[in-house]
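Here is my example:
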Amino acid sequence: MKPSSPLHNKYLLMRTISIGILLLCMVIGLTAFHQDKPLKLFLLGDSISLQYGTYLEKYLKGKFTIDRKGSQEKAMQNLDIPVDANGGDSKMVLDYLRTRENDPSFQPDLMLLNCGLHDIKRHPATHQIAVDSISYRENLEAIYQLLSRKKIPLVWVRSTDILDSLHAAKSKAFDRYAKDIVQYNAIADRVFSKHQVPVIDLYTFTRKFGDDRFADHAHYIPRVIDAQAVYIAGFLKQWGAKTK
């Protein structure tokens, strides 16, 4: 066999290196494409979620795209009236999800969900609660089962608290009480722990900011809203990293 010339060997070496570099670039490119593709997050919650949701978009940029059930602008016009992007109470959430159950386009990578503050509204004269505790538990269970059938992963957010005296002074249309929030959060804890659903404890996190955290009877000042969004974004980024 005729021995290869040094020039031929150099050509083979350069070709091998070029092919290797090309393959490496392809692998890096495909990996980068996969990592850069944001996950689809569906945010469904009460007016608290409307407020931190705007900040959340900034902190999740490139990691998640955020979708809602309606207009954020219309929902923000009156935070006490659950319309458009405001999910309302647990029955309203369940009713909405039932309208989307057979919709093939409704398939987010993750559902970030909360309801509770509208459930515990009480009539100022009769003190009748909007959604009783038994119905609340049943609604949450039905919500979980529906999302499970759709194979939509769920992260639950615990409802934030109320200062009774502040709420009574600033809200005349309806009453809320801290004891009801505690009870309904405990109900949700039992439902979702049973199904091993991840839970973001926004209730405990937000209480750390003191009594001056409130902007009105239930909602928060901007620095607290921003902190809530950072806290939630950190949780969701960890969740997203585990799914890849």
